[in-house]
Amino acid sequence: MPHFETTDGTALAYEDYGTGAPVVFVAGWSLHSDMWEYQVPYFLDHGYRCVLLDRRGHGRSDRPTTGYDVDTRADDLAALLEKLDLTEATLVGHSGGGGEIVRYLARHGSDRVAGVALLAAALPMLRRTDDNPEGIPAEFCAATLAQLRIDRPKWFADRAQGYFATHLGNAVSQAIIDHEIRRCLVTAPHAALAVQQELFHTDHRADVAALPVPALIVHGTADQSIPLETTSRHTARLAPENTFKEYPTAGHGLYITHATQLNADLREFIER
């Protein structure tokens, strides 16, 4: 697996497959590029180039002490696009990856980007404030960080069924659930804590309102990880040019449970 070095000397792992129009996949919090195993073969079969990044502290990338703020993570994404000299790319981000994408556009512009897809994204702002009354209380974030410090594997295991919304009939084997938890646990503990805290506190409302390219916004109505009303419905009201799709039976793990529908929607968006 190739690596490239960022400006602060951190070596980041990436994958680059195929030819054609580039689709850049940015993983969600605590996940890495392998999460896209149900997307990459589909897009390769349809003639696309698939580029995937393991953010710092995640997957096969270095685990530095610092650099987990959203600006640095967005700059890491920029460094990858520049290294590969990608143009007319579609950036696809899940959960926390959505924040890195919109901050990338705010900091680096859209010269290399044709459009973005924000999947169950932690946007535009998670925490509750006076001007964001539907947000999540600060106490909830503090409790989450405390639980992750005490027993991170149990935290993921306790939320696995809800992550895939299996109570709505989504067919997900125990093997897939266990495998996805193992992927999450590859992430450096200090990186998981730092990025989780950043996701909660970062305000992306200005980034979303100024999006310079078309956006596809997809979210499951049964998402227990990133509440739909606080996030994607608000994002759809802010983003200048967007297509908003709600999946009625999807949870946060829609990239697995609803892969067929999601892949078709992504391809339609890219081609349009």
Return the domain count: 1
CATH class: Alpha Beta
**Adjacency order of strands in the biggest sheet:** 1-2-4-3-5-6-7-8
Class from helix and strand fractions: alpha/beta
Helix content bin: 40-55%
Radius of gyration: 17 Å
Given as residue ranges, the uncertain stretches (5+ residues, pLDDT < 50) are none
Largest sheet: 8 strands, mixed
Q: What characteristic shape results from the CA principal axes?
A: globular
So what's the oligomer here?
A: single chain
Question: In total, how many beta strands?
Answer: 8
InterPro entries: AB_hydrolase, AB_hydrolase_1, AB_hydrolase_fold
Pfam family, one: Abhydrolase_1
Domain AB hydrolase-1: 22-259
Keywords: Hydrolase
Give a concise summary.
This protein is α/β, with parallel strands linked by helices and 272 residues long.
Keywords:
272 residues, Rossmann fold, hydrolase, AB_hydrolase_1
Describe this protein's structure.
This is Alpha/beta hydrolase. InterPro entries: AB_hydrolase, AB_hydrolase_1, AB_hydrolase_fold. One of its GO terms (molecular function) is hydrolase activity. It is globular, with a radius of gyration of 17 Å. The chain has ten helices and eight strands. The longest helix has 27 residues. The protein has a single domain, classed as Rossmann fold (3-Layer(aba) Sandwich), CATH 3.40.50.1820. The chain is 42% helix and 17% strand. It has an eight-stranded mixed beta sheet, sandwiched between helices. Helix 4 runs antiparallel to helix 5.
List the helices and strands and how they pair.
Elements: E1 3-5, E2 11-17, E3 22-26, H1 40-45, E4 49-53, H2 70-83, E5 89-94, H3 97-108, E6 113-119, H4 138-164, H5 174-185, H6 189-201, H7 205-209, E7 215-220, H8 232-238, E8 242-247, H9 254-257, H10 259-271
Helix pairs in contact: 2-3, 4-5, 4-6
